[in-house]
UniProtKB/TrEMBL annotation:
Entry coiled-coil feature ranges: none
Stretches that traverse the bilayer: none
Cited Gene3D superfamilies: 1.10.238.160
Pfam families listed in its UniProt record: Phage_AlpA
Domain of life: Bacteria
Name used for this protein in its record: AlpA family phage regulatory protein
Organism whose genome encodes this protein: Histidinibacterium aquaticum
Length: 61
């Protein structure tokens, strides 16, 4: 089953990050890289975003 992909506005909403924060964190290797979905369009894989969000969650005590 193919994974869903999200464009930047949806990723911003899901993560609470701004556009500049997303690209800054990507440059530092702290945020998943997008995949090309068109000549001038990118999107992020759902699994990559979910994994990133889960990694940021503090461990339950």
């Amino acid at each position: 089953m193919p994974s869903q992909v999200y464009r930047r506005p949806a990723v911003e909403e899901m993560t609470g990050l701004s556009r500049s924060s997303i690209y800054d964190m990507m440059a530092r290797g702290e945020f998943p890289k997008p995949v090309k979905i068109g000549r001038r369009a990118v999107a992020w894989r759902e699994g990559d975003i979910v994994a990133w969000l889960n990694a940021r969650q503090p461990a339950a005590a």
